[in-house]
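Q: I'm writing up a methods section and want to include an example of the input and output format. Could you take the sequence below and give the corresponding predicted structure tokens, formatted cleanly so I can copy it straight into the document?
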Amino acid sequence: MEQQLTHLTPKGEVTMVDVGAKPATTRKALAEAYVQLAPNTLKLLQTAALPKGDALACARLGGIMAAKETSRLIPLCHNIALSFVDVRFSIEEESSRIRIETEARATGPTGVEMEAIVAAQMAAAVIYDMCKAVQRDIVISSVRLLHKSGGKSGTFNAQGYTPC
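A: Here is the clean output for your methods example:
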């Protein structure tokens, strides 16, 4: 069965999907991103000794704010009344990187995958901004959707992801 692109009309024109007739269901999405830092930069971040201050606190707020603005950033994305957004960090000292995990939830006719992904990307960008005074070659990588649930298509779990 051939998949149809939902953002194209039969004539191939870009369009916003009409979700007005879709039932509201509880939606949840998790996404992740990684930020690779030099060991010294990671130590400064962990002790809130960076010149700009507490990078993780700023990144958490930046990620939450970005999730709320997703429809303004992604051209055909619907404006969603989010019920919850969270940004969590795991410091991986051995590899000198930070794992960012974001979560978005809403009850509505369309999913929250883009909100979770945008939150992860923005949290990573804020960490870069907060650390760039001491390191310029920071690498942001592996942004991906980990999990989505709700809606007609059901549940998706990325390869290697195990729900808690």
